[in-house]
Amino acid sequence: MIVTLVGKIVTIVMIFIGQNVAAQDLNDQHLSIVPRTEDERARVANVTKPTTDFTRSSRFEERAAGAATVRARTNANAFSKPSGNMPFEDELTFKVGNGLFRKLWVSSPSSTLASDGLGPLFNARSCQLCHIKDGRGHPPEANDSNAISMLMRVSIPTDYDALSDEITDYIATLPDPTYGHQIQDFALLGHPAEFQIGITYDEEIVAMSGDETVSLRHPSYTLDGAGYGPLHPDAMFSPRVAPQMIGLGQLEAIPAADIVALADPNDSDGDGISGRPNIVWSKEFETPMLGRFGLKAGNPTIRQQSADAFSGDIGISSPLNPMGAGECTAAQTTCQTATHGDGDARVFEVDAEILDLVSFYSRNLAVPARRNVDDATVLRGKQVFYETGCIACHAPSFVTHRLTDQPEQSFQLIWPYTDMLLHDMGDDLADNRPEARATGHEWRTPPLWGVGLTEQVSRHTYFLHDGRARSLLEAVMWHGGEAQSQRDAVAAMIKADRDALITFLESL
Question: What are phi and psi of 23, to 5 degrees?
Fold first, then answer.
């Protein structure tokens, strides 16, 4: 039976999103929006209704990001192209943003004032070193201590913090008093790094139909070489691999109301799926907003996500994170008293203009076109994906806002295959560390567009939040919690259908 999204549509009311988070606060106030007409709302509802015809591809399905879609390249640059509908006069802005995204930052003081301010504690010297070729990061390989493109978030539980009064169901946490919000495993000369991340795996053989098996690797993490003393005894950890960068502008332009309408926190339709929106604090607008970015939807906008990465990953200050010492805590006195890049004529190491350029670049990394959309095996795999109920979380399509100043994202039919909501994925995938309203068992549904090009771009096929899955099939078989029935259905289906399902995913 095909699981449709119609039953997920609910009204955005105070009791749903939190008694003290009004519907107005979830509006996309950072966007210049032209409201939809009644006729447009009807057209959107019709065009985004999940198909029941699997004899051919859906209309416009090949253009995953609408008019912003670009031709699928066959090399590692497939994720590094600008939006296909970008006006010519904006291409230079994109290229300058690309240069800043790739920039290698250096320590202060430096004769190159525009590039200094790194660290003193950091995870990487540039954005590109984590988001390699704008694609997916990876965990360190066996016997490799290099964890670039993977980091470890850390926090401690508390009964209350300031956002508890702003957001209902907010789960209060605090940064570790010594190590902050994340572990920095690199440092400038004269500063010890915080820790080195170690990882080992235990293999589990899982049986499927047709005498087929799949091996799942269970990771265990260690933090070695404490640079600043012990962690808090209640510290909670979350390993994170850098996600791919494509299509972020389209995801930001999906109307918040359309995302929240898919939520079903009490599983009112009885399908076992109870997605919830994360509600997070906007530093820029000083109000609660819908979380969209990050593996637990912990950031509301691309600009804030970029600013937080500059601060936490590279140790670079910006208007949204003005601390010259980046993520360093008060307990890390040598970091706090070091020379920082905002000590010269600059107020911030990354000013508003640079932050806007990097945000523009990130917003306009294009999604490649789908491949083989009318191939018989791909169509069969699509049918399996839909009828197994995968679209209950991986919602196929949306139509973005009509925007006055972002033609690349304006009123586009897009196919990201995500509902942008939080879902309980079960004990095996739990990091047991909450983030805003997300519990330690919940993750945002990742968009699937471009997933079939991961090996071509990133030279690996590691998936999930910590890269534990070495193939798409392994990623599917890790699903639990709300997706347990879908995972079990995939394990039990005939091999030909399971293979078709993977072929479909590879076409995305």
Answer: -55, -35
Amino acid making up residue 175: P
Q: Is 82 helix (H, G, I), strand (E, B) or coil?
A: strand
Give the percent of the chain with pLDDT over 70.
93
Per-residue pLDDT at 4 exceeds 70: no
Structure tokens that stand for 20 in this block: 């003290």
**Do 118 and 340 contact (CB within 8 A), yes or no?**
no
Which has the closest alpha carbon to 181: 167, 190, 194, 166? 194
Identify the band that residue 371 occupies on the pLDDT scale cut at 50, 70 and 90: very high
500 belongs to a structural domain: yes
Domain count for the chain: 1
**Containing H/E element for 256?**
helix 256-260
**Side chain identity at residue 1, one-letter code:** M
Buried-exposed string 113-139: b where 16+ CB fall within 10 A, e elsewhere: eebbbbbbbbbbbbbbbbbbbbbbbbb
Instruction: Look at residue 10 and tell me if it is in a domain.
Output: yes
- The string of DSSP letters for 414-440 reads E-------EEE--TTT-----BTTB-T
Q: What is the pLDDT of residues 424-482, one digit of tens each?
A: 999 999 999 999 999 999 999 999 999 999 999 999 999 999 999 999 999 999 999 99
Is 142 within the bounds of a domain? no
DSSP 180: B
Whole-number pLDDT of residue 343: 67
Locate 435 and state its tokens.
Answer: 């983030």
Assess if residue 295 is contained within a domain.
Answer: no
48 and 399 Cβ atoms separated by less than 8 Å? yes
Give the C-alpha separation, 304 to 312, whole Å. Answer: 12
Which domain, by its residues, includes 444?
A: 6-88+247-279+365-507
Q: What is the pTM of this model?
A: 0.93
CA–CA gap between residue 477 and residue 493 (Å, rounded) = 13
Question: To 10 degrees, the CA torsion angle through 217, 220, 225, 227?
Answer: 110
**Which pair of structure tokens corresponds to residue 279?**
């509600």
Q: Determine contact, residues 457/133, Cβ cutoff 8 Å.
A: yes
